[in-house]
Specification:
Elements: E1 13-16, H1 19-25, E2 32-37, H2 44-52, E3 77-83, E4 90-98, H3 106-113, E5 118-124, H4 131-143, E6 147-153, H5 161-178, E7 184-188, H6 212-217, H7 222-226, E8 232-241, E9 244-253, E10 255-256, E11 261-265, E12 269-278, E13 281-282, E14 286-287, E15 291-296, E16 307-310, E17 316-327, E18 338-343, E19 346-359, E20 366-367, E21 377-390, H8 397-400, E22 401-405, E23 412-421, H9 423-427, H10 437-444, E24 449-454, H11 461-474, E25 479-483, H12 484-487, H13 499-518, E26 522-526, H14 532-540, E27 547-552, H15 556-562, H16 567-573, E28 594-596, H17 603-616, H18 622-629
Parallel strand pairs: 2-4, 2-5, 5-6, 6-7, 24-26, 24-27, 25-26, 27-28
Antiparallel strand pairs: 1-3, 3-4, 8-9, 8-16, 9-15, 10-14, 11-12, 11-16, 12-13, 12-15, 17-21, 17-23, 18-19, 18-22, 19-20, 19-21, 22-23
Helix pairs in contact: 3-4, 11-17, 13-14
Length: about 625
């Protein structure tokens, strides 16, 4: 290892070394990884940069934040601790990752848990156990850290250092017990002098316990524990070699050797490992934590996202889960919105179908919630568009942790941990029917689609939609009109007009529209549908060319002048809350298939434009219209 600096104290020394090189050369070893959390951001850099490394590593340590986070986390630092006299000296290497205190970067704390073994929590005796300390303890618990070390700082500044240490320790332990952290160690440390970090605390005669490095040295790395678990390899890349498939990826758990029988999930296909290699070298075995290439038989069709498992205990597969989600974005999480979900090596479409409850980090109460705001923690149900191999997060963090990502911006919206698969995911299957969509379309003689009218109240959506249906009916088309007010008298009578209820309103209408398209109908919807995310979700339920967004574009002042139902007047008086355009936003379509300037066009002309567009796009054939109009 390249010595980047030393802080020798007697026979003890600490080195910072080249991160990339060390991790590459020693990935098979049990490197202890820790995340350092400082809720007030006062001591973390002193602890790592000055007291552990005892030199400024800036510019000499390679590092990066976790992929997908909107805010880069501070760079990790690799330190090598050697203690003891001469030939009796012992050594241990640690990878220390500072956790940012920015709520938007809490992503780093959770993602770190998938790789890290221990959380180091700094708590000042001066400020005690604050709301931010409790939030970090709660996050540490949900992130799945198996070991927590609480470093109580600033005791030397208190009138009674021992009493201050005991008070903080008891408060942290009490809260940690409630969030089911069972492996918690507390110790005092003086960051200003380095007491009780590497060497024993001569200035703390009242404390007779271990030093920080003693505690770290006693912890078994997570990768060592995973080596005793069932074999799992997450496939990242596949190529053909000599008639066999070469599958490259990370060994998430267990051990594999050439000749082992395996099962490839989610396909369920049995296979045999014919060879193992890493960096062009053949290996006799691969163990948890290694990145390797397996050559396997009978694996045609395997792709990234698959999991190769031991044959007698394969990875579970499901498409619906209960999960804990920590929300990281200013735009709230609403049930029904569709996100990309990155789990293991798979990327799938995912929808939060239900927020079961939100957790209050101050008192751990379970709160009813219909949305999650920034930094909110909730227990939710998830539905995916296809089954994926997984493991509960408590069993394997690589296969049980996931990211929720915005489909357009690519921003990380939230992080989560799978608790278990929902039973109904295993028991509910699609029922085959003999009369399918193609048969229904052939009978009706026209293509099915959704005409999605969106716009402000008073923009003319319902008026134009009604005229369009009349003209389609006269042409012999099979139609159904879903109007916003009518639907709220039945299917959606239980919903109000909060943002969360509006999201659920459109989700239900979109699913009903999809069923009607499957029936071969031209479905016409007239809803304000104020949010782009929900209109995009409705579009994604259908095939290409089956969804037409029609924007009835009317200025707010014109819509207010029309006000056929008197709703704008009520909203202006404050008698009608959450009214779109007044105290609730409307997000204009960015690229609608049809834009109708209903401030200038009369309803008949607007309907004509819609009919022409359908003919031009092959929904209705021109000859059909001519024949049926005679």
């Amino acid at each position: 290892m390249h010595d980047m600096g030393s802080g020798a104290q007697g026979n003890e020394s600490v080195f910072a070394v080249s991160l990339d090189r060390y991790l590459r050369d020693n990935q098979h070893l049990g490197l202890l990884r820790m995340t350092v959390c400082d809720p007030v951001d006062e001591g973390v850099h002193t602890l790592i940069g000055r007291r552990l490394v005892d030199s400024d590593p800036a510019g000499s340590i390679a590092g990066h934040g976790p992929s997908g986070c909107g805010t880069l986390a501070p760079a990790p630092v690799l330190v090598h601790v050697r203690s003891g006299p001469g030939s009796q000296a012992t050594s241990r290497s640690f990878l220390a990752q500072p956790a940012s205190t920015d709520p938007g970067a809490l992503c780093s704390l959770i993602i770190d848990a998938s790789d890290n073994d221990v959380a180091l929590l700094l708590v000042s005796a001066r400020s005690g156990v604050t709301t931010e300390v409790r939030r970090h303890v709660c996050l540490i618990s949900h992130a799945g850290f198996r070991h927590v070390i609480v470093v109580v700082t600033d005791t030397e500044q208190m009138p009674d250092p021992r009493e201050a240490f005991d008070r903080v320790t008891e408060a942290v332990r009490s809260f940690a017990d409630r969030v089911e952290i069972d492996k918690l160690t507390a110790l005092p440390a003086a960051l200003s002098s380095g007491e009780n970090i590497v060497s024993a605390a001569a200035a703390m005669p009242w404390y007779q316990g271990p030093t920080l490095t003693d505690c770290l040295t006693a912890i078994e790395p997570e990768v060592s524990r995973q080596r005793n678990a069932h074999f799992r390899l997450m496939v990242l890349q596949v190529e053909e070699r000599g008639g066999h498939q070469a599958c490259s990826g990370l060994v998430a758990s267990g051990t594999v050797r050439p000749g082992d029988r395996v099962r490839i999930q989610p396909m369920g296909r049995e296979s045999r490992v014919t060879g193992i290699s890493a960096a062009s070298k053949k290996l006799d075995e691969a163990v948890a934590g290694q990145s390797v290439t397996l050559t396997v038989e009978n694996a045609a069709g395997i792709g990234p996202g698959a999991v190769i498992s031991t044959i007698n205990a394969p990875a579970e597969v499901a498409d619906q889960f209960e999960a804990r989600i920590i929300w990281l974005h200013e735009q709230p999480l609403y049930p029904g919105r569709k996100y990309l979900m990155r789990i293991g090596a798979s990327t799938v479409d995912a929808v939060v179908t239900d927020i079961k409850y939100e957790i209050n980090v101050d008192n751990l109460d379970h709160l009813a919630a219909n949305k999650l705001e920034l930094s909110g923690i909730g227990v939710c149900n998830l539905a995916l568009d296809r089954p994926v191999p997984f493991a509960p997060y408590g069993d394997n963090r690589d296969l049980g942790g996931f990211l929720l990502i915005d489909r357009l911006s690519g921003d990380t919206m939230g992080v989560g941990m799978l608790n278990f698969a929902l039973r109904r995911a295993h028991n509910i299957h699609l029922q085959h029917v003999d009369i399918d969509k193609q048969a229904r379309v052939a009978q009706k003689g026209h293509r099915p689609c959704v005409l999605w009218f969106t716009g402000l109240s008073g923009s003319g959506k319902s008026t134009v939609a009604n005229l369009v249906e009349r003209r389609l009916h006269a042409l012999g088309a099979h139609t159904y009109l879903l109007d916003g007010d009518n639907v709220r008298h039945g299917l959606n009578r239980d919903l109000g007009f909060t943002d969360a209820d509006r999201v659920e309103n459109i989700r239900r209408v979109a699913e009903v529209s999809k069923l009607m398209v499957d029936a071969g109908l031209v479905v016409i919807t007239a809803f304000i549908s104020p949010f782009r995310a929900e209109r995009r979700m409705a579009r994604q339920l259908l095939l290409e060319g089956e969804f037409f967004e029609i924007f009835t574009d009317t200025p707010l002042e014109v819509a207010e002048q029309r006000d056929p139902k008197g709703l704008y007047k009520k909203a202006r008086r404050g008698d009608l809350k959450n009214f779109t355009g007044i105290d609730s936003p409307y997000e204009r379509p960015e690229a609608p298939e049809i834009r109708l300037d209903t401030g200038a066009l009369d309803p008949e002309s607007a309907a004509d434009r819609v009919i022409r567009h359908l003919m031009e796009n092959g929904i209705l054939a021109v000859e059909d219209r001519v024949a049926r109009s005679r």
